[in-house]
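Predict both folds.
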Amino acid sequence: MKRGTQRLAILLAILGSGVAGWWITRSASQPAPVKQVVEAPAPKPVYDPPPLEKKTEKRPSVKIQRDTAAEEEGALEYQRSLRFSSREAMEQFLTKAKSKGIAILGSIDQLNALHVGFLSLDDLNGLLDGSEETAYIYPVNLPTPATEGLPEGAVGMGDTLLSWLGIKGDNANFGANVKFVVLDTGSTLDGANNRNFVKLPENPADQNGHGTAVNDLIKQIAPAADVASYRIADDNGRSNTFLMTQGIMAALEARVDIINISMGSYGNSALLKDAVDQALAAGIKIFASAGNEGYTQVSYPAAYEGVVSVGAVDANGSYLPFSNSGSVSVTAPGLDLLTAWTGGKTVYFTGTSASAPIVAAATAAVMSQGGPKTTSSSAYSKLTDYLNDAGAPGDDSYYGSGMVDLGRVFQGGVAGIPDAAIAANYISTNANGQTQLQVVVQNRGTTTLINAPVTVTTPAGTSTMYVSTLRPGAISTFTLPLTVTDAGARVQSQVSNGSGDIKPSNNRRTDVYAAPTSN
């Protein structure tokens, strides 16, 4: 939002509060009307658009004190969060704030917190006694993937999500008795359960379909889940850390199992972190998109300890460059997934916004399988016991601990299943600065792999090694020298596991590496 528009919005809120008196924006809201589903046209690619700028209207002649501190911090100007030591202290502030040029833009009763707007920071500070916790409020946006940087061989998912996850047969009961909250732009799916913290557009066709797509991905994997959609972002994809905090606290009050947040901020809000910590302590699992800016850090709340930070891969299981790296927990598909959109449309949905609900829904599927419902934390722990390794051997900053595979989870208790896989052909540099190839073999079956030959072909020729003994779930790494010429390098690796291998398609992997660029 431009500074002029923001000042005008705060000014109008303050003028309105002088006429109508102060009020508190309650967390409760009316559910959105169910949208009629119309026949869907052919799907088209959808990438979250950058926020639109509103035209600045003529402002009233009012002296405004520049909020340079928030501007330098990258926070929302002329806005702060106030947290009080008690409900009584908050009420006392509200009484003093009447007709003092302070707009009350929101509240969170559980935290004794207010979202306030002002034109003069001195006026706000004059109403405080120093016992309050005053903090910035940061912008939150839907992440927009930089798709122009996709590698040439990247493959979209289309409608193959369930088979990619290893889901076979009927999944109608997946997610049964699991309570979800999705913090997003709201859902227009038939029968959607919406709660609106941000006003809906006058024309239903103008509603941003991001939340609908996220909800649809959850329903594709775990159709029996009880999903509530909290609208905390407007139709330009804008929200803030106070609204996100409101959503989390409302989900905590609703006693849900899982929260999905496919948006993020690069401002570290203490108020938001407190809400996240309270939700985690209550046993709620939070899944959040890592972000789509290609940064070497993930956005908040994905960056908070205990939150599952989800990165994106393509249908081949290859890292997508727009997906933020750093403290990534796990990865899931995030390129061209076929999903629903506003107005009954079907689109191709791209970004870590898609990856996060896939992992969240996979966790819900595990929760509802094999007897009484387990906790979301226990289910996620089981899911991570059967991740497919990728990239550098073991955990890394791009793939986290690996990629989700529900098929392996469901067959984990069945003995005697052979499944050897080439997890990665990974190029790295050794201690002497020389380029090397690390071929990662993973046993994705339930029986020990013994004396399996691994054949690797590089521009230098073909080599054969042997996996002596590899227990289920474990990896083995073979390191070879590699020269990448101006023409690049093609690497092909294959592991042989006999005719009984349950998934021969993952026994071989071919990668083409481009020549290093010179500055």
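Second protein follows, with its predicted structure tokens after the sequence.
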Amino acid sequence: MVIGNYTYRIKIWILGLSMCALQAVAQKTASNPLIHADVPDMAIIRVDSTYYMSSTTMHMSPGVPIMKSKDLTNWKLIGYAYDRLVENDAMNLENGEQTYGRGSWASSLRFHKGIYYLSTFSATSGKTHIYTTSDIENGPWEKHEFAPSYHDHTLFFEDGKIYMIWGAGELSIVELKDDLSGVKENTQQVLIKNATKPIGASIILPAEGSQLFKHNGKFYLFNIAWPRNGMRTVIIHRADQITGPYEGRIALQDKGVAQGGLIDTPSGDWFSYLFQDSGAVGRIPYLVPVKWENDWPVLGVDGKVPDNLDLPANGSLIPGIVNSDDFEREVGDPSLPLVWQFNHNPDNSLWSVSELPGYLRLKAGRIDTLFLQAKNTLTQRSIGPESSGTIKIDVANMKSGDFAGLAILQKKYGLIGVTCDGDQKAIFMSKNDEDGGLLSKIELNQDTVYFKIECDFKNRTDKAYFYYSLDGKKWESFGEVLQMQYTLPHFMGYRFGLFNYATENIGGYVDFDYFRITDTRSSTTN
């Protein structure tokens, strides 16, 4: 009996060691998706042992976020290429104009002879924009711009020349002037007549999203295409000269993971960075391992996107990509941390973190009838697979016709907050109604109130739930569940937003005490 019990204990001990070993391996291993948040159109470079990544945030200001990593899996926002893309009615939300889903799109990021180059393009400005700096982490960035707007271009330096490749289906190449002020005359030519050819003629999306790389003397051009009745697909073209001729082939068809390029580690391992359309949370980054065979990069593991990667484990996206904010500022602190972006260009006279220290004050400076047309909605990403945003707000100084509170922002948005009718305030919830119709409303008889939105992105459930509290402890479900939907008119994942706008009188304001974002799956907050 003793021997049997001893043997049983030994087996349990061995099993325990095995489980611990498996857990230890799991903790040291990165997993896909790399970032469960809207970080599309990535461009990644490595400078010595540090990686830098740019991405797309379109109509948000500031724009073209820059992120940094030391291990390729854990990323932190370090800056933006520009504070304001352009001054026009669309970007400024003036005269009924807007630029949802436009702004600036896919960027190209390069490092050449000690200078960082970040280029993007915009239908809103009608131009190609190139930003340069010798210090990517601190700036400043110098702006160069010219017409036209080159769609989904890639910037490349070769033999003392500056090239740009762009297009959709038919891809073209041109040389740029040395001062980046425009293109050289008589240098434009068609590079690949039909870059979509490897997937056939029946397509939803022609080859675009160009990113060019050079390895062992050969050039590799990455593109995405989408066959009808198929999925987003990686196409790679290869050439001995930058100007071609190019031969192409399908490089990856799995899970719709596509569009991106190549990156190597200091130890010589190779990966392809790509992204997946993942419903309401947005377009989320993946990494796949790459091996070189017969001078071709071979993506994935047996042609598949792996769940795990031989890289350090991904940590929480808090605080590197999103973060809570109590709006307390010390001397020398930025007014707003990098996790925040305004919806379109803000009016900087109508927000402050200094007028009432420890609070974000949003003022209503004009009359707006639509939430999506309102200025100074301050946003940051939601994160998957589950997350929540919570605010505490003082509404004592609202005026009749004002609306303020917490949003989950996309074209099919949801709002929860406070509205004012004469001297009476009320808690309201609204969704999917660009005319400002209210779905639920109850009287509010105090000046401080709490709101929370919980987002469930698991398996593309894509539901948002709305709550209020009068004391910050007891929460009441309110209004209706929002079925979130990723829509092309906005072309980005849902974002939490702090808002205040007037429909009758200007001059009212609200004070946000804090915003707290939580990864509800792991209960991580900051």
